[in-house]
Amino acid sequence: MTAVSFRLRYAGAAFVVALLAVAAVAALLAWRQYADARTLSALAGQAARESVRPELAARAQSVASHAAENIAGAVRAGDRDGIASRLEAFTRDDTVESLSVDSRLGGTLYSFERTPAAPAGAQMAAVDVPVHLVAETFPGAATPERLATLHLKLSQAAPVAVLPPGAARAADGNTALTWWLV
Q1: Model confidence over 87-102: pLDDT tens digits?
Q2: Three-state secondary structure along 111-130?
């Protein structure tokens, strides 16, 4: 074995060790980037859900109040068909999961439940609103008369993580670059 042969083997072994070290560092950096991206995505999704929750509750309150105003006369008259026809526009809304009207004397005047149910991960907001009319109980004194209670449940699809334009291609390019370095 000559000195040149020994030096060539030593240089080859050192090159292989350096190449393995670079591959290990690249794999570690790629794994860390993947973990950070998942954490950031989860954080962004949680922030989006938290920002939607109060808006969904306010929308549920608004829709329920509007529906209660629409059916007040039909509830007072005991007209179940009139209640159903007035609530039809609300039941066509895809976000309305369930809607029911319970009489103050007991019993259900109207009930609607959407099938199939909301997808998994969808946020829900439920609200109960009194159905009332202003009635003159004493001469000259108008007070609201509670006729029934309207129960409404709204759903909102879970926020979907949206990447900015070109981010998916950039991520694929980074993966290709990582594999090229390995």
Answers
A1: 999 999 888 999 999 9
A2: EEECCCCCCCCCEEEEEEEE
